[in-house]
Request: fold
Amino acid sequence: MDFKIRKTTVEDLEQLRDLYKSAFGKDTNIDKMYENFEKLKNNPDYLNYSAVTDENELIGFVRVTIHHDIFEDCKDYATIWSVRSKYKRQGVGTKMFRVIEEDLKSMDIDCIGLIAVNTEEANAFYQSLGYEKENGYFKKL
Reply:
């Protein structure tokens, strides 16, 4: 399957809503998606990546947030959220991570925190990319 990784565009949002719904079983307010995308699209601390086929079908999405630190040489670091792919074991996720990691390196970022589902399959995938599982917590308010 041929696909490319690029920055997410406003034209991706309808398909992104469908991808989110299929992954989580929850609908999203599309008007709010457009509003928030408009607010964040030029902010260099919020990066959204889409995997799209030659026919512009959205098959994957990753959201990256840059954090500015005040400790340990004050180096920025990134967190990756919302890793989603329509297809598994076809190289979409791996290619997305490679592109994102190269972009982050060019921004002098050398540390990434990954917020991801905790399944055996997902853990094996992230570990195959060199990510180490550490203790962490999450609370939904």
